[in-house]
Design a protein that fits this description.
Blueprint lengths: L1 E6 L3 E7 L6 E8 L6 H14 L9 E6 L5 H12 L4 E2 L20 H14 L3 E6 L2 E7 L5 E8 L1 H10 L20 H28 L4 E5 L3 H5 L7 E2 L3 H14 L1
Helix pairs in contact: 1-2, 3-7
């Protein structure tokens, strides 16, 4: 089985794929912690697999997309010590599945490339993939399937934490849309501003990207907070939380072949 690991700044996604069917059979979302040692991560992964009755011995391949360089050697050590395999790291500038048309391909996040690969395979091109994570990233994929570039905005949680942290009287609130955009109390006002503000931001950037791409572009959202915006936007057609894992599975297959 293939273990796919997407290491983000805030969260790490793990997925197990069956080699025979290429099907995602198990997946988890955990906090990223650069302080953990290889042994600590190894024990942690082993415990996760145990909850799914998955023996560690079933893992015979690992593919990793990481935007946290401090963890790369740690995770390589985990793979070699606990799984007896050498991991395949997705490097944007050297992978061959998608042509990256940015000025500096080496600066592109491996997680974004993985999501673009998975999105293009599942939904075709042209395509906009909106990743709602530590940052909100809008990735444009051309009709020819090329990775054109991105727009990056502050993530939902970062935006909320910044406002609440700098304003003494504002409370933390649940990310739920109120009935009216005109709030008549603090909670409703914050929820209206947060939810409809993020929706408006997303729709404005999607509309401008579509105009620049000059084609009828599909839009898919991914990431842990994708549902928060997608349920209130007619422009986001699908939510697919596991695009980066799907991209890593395709990347591993290309490396193996």
């Amino acid at each position: 089985m293939l273990l796919a690991i997407d290491v983000g700044n805030t969260e790490t996604k793990l997925g197990i794929f069956d080699h025979g069917s290429d099907k995602l059979v198990h997946h988890w979302r955990v906090n990223t912690d650069a302080r953990r040692t290889a042994d600590e991560y190894g024990v942690f992964f082993t415990q996760l697999f145990a909850t799914a009755s998955l023996p560690v011995s079933r893992i015979d391949a690992v593919a990793i997309a990481s935007v946290v360089p401090r963890l790369d050697n740690t995770l390589a050590g985990v793979c070699e010590k606990f799984f007896s395999v050498r991991p395949h790291f997705l490097e944007p500038q050297s992978q061959t599945l998608i042509d990256i048309r940015t000025d500096r391909p080496a600066e592109v996040g491996a997680d974004l490339v993985a999501a673009a690969i998975g999105g293009r395979q599942r939904y075709g091109a042209p395509l906009i993939v909106v990743s709602y994570g530590t940052a909100t990233v809008f990735t444009a994929i051309s009709a020819q399937g090329e990775y054109l570039g991105v727009a990056i905005a502050p993530g939902i949680n970062i935006s909320i934490d910044a406002l609440v942290g700098r304003t003494a009287k504002l409370p933390q609130v649940a990310l739920e849309a109120p009935d009216c955009v005109i709030g008549r109390n603090t909670i409703d006002a914050l929820q209206a501003g947060f939810i409809y503000g993020f929706v408006g931001q997303s729709e404005a950037i999607i509309t401008r990207m579509r105009a620049e791409m000059q084609s009828d572009v599909r839009v898919v959202a991914t990431g842990g907070l994708a549902d928060v915006v997608a349920r209130h936007s007619a422009l986001i057609e699908r939510v697919d939380p596991n695009l980066s894992l799907a991209g890593l599975q395709l990347f591993y297959t290309s490396e193996r072949d």
